[in-house]
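Example for tutorial group B:
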């Protein structure tokens, strides 16, 4: 490790970890349990996705398309917060929906983490230097044929989002404790291609957090509960 890299770790990464640890104290996702719940960065999760079997007759033909999202946790004095975005209504796919920053993995992305960081920079101007990746959650398959790898990371609390006007209508934070409480998650019935499906949904003032985003948060909660 060079002296410059050592200084970066000492003055940026370690303080971020300590801020995260303090903001998670006393919650289901305390720092030690959170780290144990995640797949390590050097061992990205394999497989088609924990929900693939539910979508076998609904997926489009052909192989799944690789994608990645950044599940960013911001350490605040009031507790850990999760960064979410609401997409613009004009987008062809998922217009107006709440989600994590992220998108399709491009050919020049080294891995899922690189894709999540690139997309986050494009969507909300999050610089790589303001992020410390912690690990991965289980891949999730969307009904549109994407295999999404969630990258969990701690975000510098000094970060000021600048939404891309073509893609992002709003950037907001939700307390991690709220999202990890089973009382705040409900099952909703929708009809898709003539078939009744059950999707997950959180109700947050002014926002509807549902579908893939709610399922990814649910996956985090279940992985944490398994360690309790």
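The residue assignment follows.
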């Amino acid at each position: 490790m060079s002296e410059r890299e050592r200084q970066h770790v000492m003055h940026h990464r370690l303080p971020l970890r300590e801020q995260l640890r303090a903001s998670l104290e006393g919650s289901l996702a305390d720092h030690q349990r959170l780290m144990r719940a995640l797949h390590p960065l050097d061992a990205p999760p394999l497989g088609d996705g924990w929900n693939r079997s539910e979508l076998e007759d609904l997926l489009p033909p052909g192989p799944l398309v690789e994608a990645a999202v950044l599940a960013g946790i911001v350490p605040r004095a009031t507790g850990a917060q999760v960064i979410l975005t609401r997409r613009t209504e004009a987008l062809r796919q998922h217009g107006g929906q709440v989600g994590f920053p992220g998108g399709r993995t491009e050919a020049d992305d080294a891995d899922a983490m690189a894709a999540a960081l690139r997309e986050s920079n494009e969507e909300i101007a999050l610089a790589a230097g303001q992020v410390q990746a912690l690990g991965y959650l289980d891949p999730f398959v969307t009904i549109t044929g994407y295999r999404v790898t969630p990258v969990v990371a701690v975000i510098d609390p000094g970060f000021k989002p600048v939404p891309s006007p073509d893609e992002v209508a709003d950037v907001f934070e939700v307390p991690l404790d709220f999202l990890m409480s089973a009382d705040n998650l409900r099952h909703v019935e929708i009809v898709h291609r003539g078939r009744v499906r059950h999707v997950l949904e959180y109700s947050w003032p002014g926002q509807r957090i549902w579908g893939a985003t709610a399922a990814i948060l649910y996956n985090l909660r279940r992985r944490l509960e398994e360690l309790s």
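The helical segments are 3-24, 31-37, 112-124, 176-179, 212-225. Compare this with the pattern of hydrophobic and polar residues in the output above.
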